[in-house]
DNA sequence: GTAATTGCAAAAGGTTTGCAACTCA
DNA sequence: TGAGTTGCAAACCTTTTGCAATTAC
């Protein structure tokens, strides 16, 4: 399923920086690497902590924020809201476009694709006179695990 | 199309407060009224300003926030993200469930309904073992007006 | 009369920014 | 060498909170 492997995307990151006359600093490198190391959604703060926990590795919060913005502008990562008020990011490595289904009990996030829904969205946009740039579809519910365990909690 | 008229929902607000042993204060009344007066999506700050602009009417920011939370808990309004980092609210008066299509250039928000998409969502959730509680579908693009005027702006 | 509410100002939480020191190319 | 980058701390913005005064019921 991978569209591009880690090496290729790393190279593209370098090219992207070069094209914009930006420098590949140690901090950017570490942030990039760490962001692509996880397959989870993460907050800027979480990434900051991960880097701090890694022995000796310290990158300032400001640089984390600045670099995440940079990565998003370059299309290497995308941001979304986790529904609890936090901004979370995910990298695009090996991800085709997908939407999310989120468990309201445990916060688990699964990803899915549905071409029929995609097609209908384009149709809706056209109907309203919009040209569709992107969309966000988030399904929220209770996952199987939580339904079996917690049942009717809170 | 209205599910409930303004009078009816106003009454329900009173009942809701009563049921929770809360008081119908002048401030709550004004906030409620103003929130239902507009059919646009609004930020807490915007509502605060509206009330301030209205001659003599002043409600503190704190009370605006507290009351909006209260109204959302009661199901009288719902909140969402406008995609620019702001929390925006909309009242539910006369609104059936709908999704949003947002213009990335001018921030305009339109609402639509599509039963086919709704049905497919339920199917997706079932496939993944989730029971669907709710969903958010946001289409983002460029509206007809902006496409005609601005064209390829920055 | 009394519990609930308000306004204020301070606090909080997340993100951005100015600036001097530093570093990649 | 010099444009771009970093870290720090202060600034920002939105939202929340503690508390004394006030108000609805």
Structural commentary:
2 copies of one chain form a homodimer. Chain A folds into 2 domains: 1-95, Arc Repressor Mutant, subunit A; 97-154, Dna Ligase, domain 1. Chain A is α+β, with helices and mostly antiparallel strands. The relative contact order of chain A is 0.13. Chain A is built from 6 helices and 5 strands; from the N terminus they run H-H-H-H-E-E-E-E-H-E-H. Chain A starts with 5 loop residues before the first helix and ends in a 5-residue tail after the last helix. The model of chain A has no long low-confidence stretch (mean pLDDT 84). Chain A binds chain B through residues 81, 101, 103-104, 110, 112, 114, 116-117, 120-121, 124-125, 127-144, 147, and chain B through 81, 101, 103-104, 110, 112, 114, 116-117, 120-121, 124-125, 127-144, 147. Chain A binds a DNA duplex (25 and 25 nucleotides) through helix 2 and helix 4.
β-sheet strand percentage of chain A = 15-25%
For this structure, the CATH topology of the largest domain in chain A is: Arc Repressor Mutant, subunit A
> Can you tell me the CATH class of the largest domain in chain A?
Mainly Alpha
CATH homology superfamily of the largest domain in chain A:
Winged helix-like DNA-binding domain superfamily/Winged helix DNA-binding domain
Biggest interface, chains and residue tallies: A-B, 32 and 32 residues
Kindly state the mean pLDDT of chain A as a whole number?
A: 84
Whole-number total of structural domains of chain A: 2
Shape of chain A: globular
The CATH architecture name of the largest domain in chain A reads: Orthogonal Bundle
């Amino acid at each position: 399923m991978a569209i591009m492997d880690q090496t290729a995307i790393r190279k593209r990151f370098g090219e992207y920086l070069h094209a914009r006359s930006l420098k590949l600093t140690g901090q950017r490198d570490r942030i990039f690497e760490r962001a692509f190391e996880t397959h989870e959604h993460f907050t800027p703060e979480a990434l900051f902590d991960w880097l701090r926990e890694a022995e000796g590795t310290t990158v300032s919060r400001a640089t984390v924020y600045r670099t995440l913005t940079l990565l998003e502008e370059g299309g290497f990562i995308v941001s979304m809201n986790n529904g609890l008020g936090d901004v979370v990011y995910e990298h695009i490595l090996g991800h085709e476009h997908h939407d999310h289904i989120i468990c309201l009990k445990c916060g688990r996030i699964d990803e899915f694709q549905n071409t029929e829904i995609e097609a209908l969205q384009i149709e809706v946009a056209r109907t309203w006179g919009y040209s569709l740039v992107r969309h966000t579809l988030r399904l929220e519910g209770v996952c199987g695990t939580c339904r079996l365990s917690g049942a009717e909690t809170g």
